[in-house]
Amino acid sequence: MDSAIVKDYLTGLQTRIVDALAAIDGKPFLVDTWQRPEGGGGTSRIIEEGKVFERGGVGFSHVMGKNLPPSAAANRPEIAGRSWEAMGVSLVLHPRNPYAPTVHMNVRFFIATAEGEEPAAGAPMWWFGGGMDLTPYYGFEEDARHFHQTCKDALTPFRGDLYPRFKKWCDDYFFLKHRNEPRGVGGIFFDDFNALGFDQSFAMMQSVGDAFIDAYAPILTRRMNTPYGERERDFQAYRRGRYVEFNLVFDRGTHFGLQSGGRTESILMSLPPIVKWRYNWSPEAGSPEARLYSDFLIARDWV
């Protein structure tokens, strides 16, 4: 296991993604490098009020600590309280045009250790995690199919059962229980993954990270110049409220960052800039807004 090669890949991935997105928008990303007093640091690459992106962030972090926070040990109680090291690239993009979907992607590597103690044989104390998911405001079947097909293509070379497994994991994870609705049309999600050994697990994580631009850029460029009006912007702001609710109430990455004393600005860069809430509102039956609920915010096999 060599964490240095993982870090080299992740920093390169951040650069490649930012370069591709900046070329689409035409505005450079702000570079914000930071250090964490408890150990480690990172670089947040931010765009606000761009031509295409109303707000977006592509962050790299490499942080460490001596006491694993509860959110990270939720599925592995045996590692609670251990020292730890985490690195990853995480992004959320909020386009200005309501017909262009919001997107999230992250890939990460985690190591849990105990001072002076070796992990037990057969029980790796490292794992990979990540995935990507799409959150449209006005749904298009061709967009959802393309996104899922790209995710499937990234995973199939490693094991044929990974896409359906990670697709269901994504559907289950990005679900607002208090609203009884999914956040979007899903994608893939995985965590605590080391089943292929280090080399192949790392290669799989790289394949997911490398697939992001292929999954999202064609959708973005197809929708970013679609004419829209105040009605579409209003609905976009309303639906963005669901994104905020999920990130603050359920998202393990947000909870881990805050519980571990992370940098708040970087942790909350995923939040959209303009959001609305309404009391007990639902779209008019038969409207394009209602079609989002009936045709897209449901469990579906897209490929």
UniProtKB/TrEMBL annotation:
Q: Which reaction does it catalyse?
A: coproporphyrinogen III + O2 + 2 H(+) = protoporphyrinogen IX + 2 CO2 + 2 H2O
Q: Which Pfam families match?
A: Coprogen_oxidas
Which positions are catalytic residues?
A: H104
**Origin organism of this chain?**
Paucimonas lemoignei
Q: Which family does it belong to?
A: Belongs to the aerobic coproporphyrinogen-III oxidase family.
Extract the ranges annotated as region (Important for dimerization): 243-278
Q: Which cofactor does it need?
A: a divalent metal cation
Q: In which pathway does it act?
A: Porphyrin-containing compound metabolism; protoporphyrin-IX biosynthesis; protoporphyrinogen-IX from coproporphyrinogen-III (O2 route): step 1/1
UniProt GO cellular component terms: cytoplasm
Q: Does the keyword Metal-binding apply?
A: yes
Keyword Magnesium attributed: no
Role, per record? Involved in the heme biosynthesis. Catalyzes the aerobic oxidative decarboxylation of propionate groups of rings A and B of coproporphyrinogen-III to yield the vinyl groups in protoporphyrinogen-IX.
Q: Tell me the Gene Ontology biological-process terms attached to this UniProt entry.
A: protoporphyrinogen IX biosynthetic process
Q: Which residues bind substrate?
A: S90, N106, V107, R108, G261, G262, R263
The record's keywords, sorted A to Z, are: Cytoplasm, Heme biosynthesis, Metal-binding, Oxidoreductase, Porphyrin biosynthesis
- Give the main EC class: oxidoreductase
UniProt-recorded name of the protein: Oxygen-dependent coproporphyrinogen-III oxidase
- Subcellular location(s) per record: Cytoplasm
Q: Which GO terms describe its molecular function?
A: coproporphyrinogen oxidase activity; metal ion binding; protein homodimerization activity
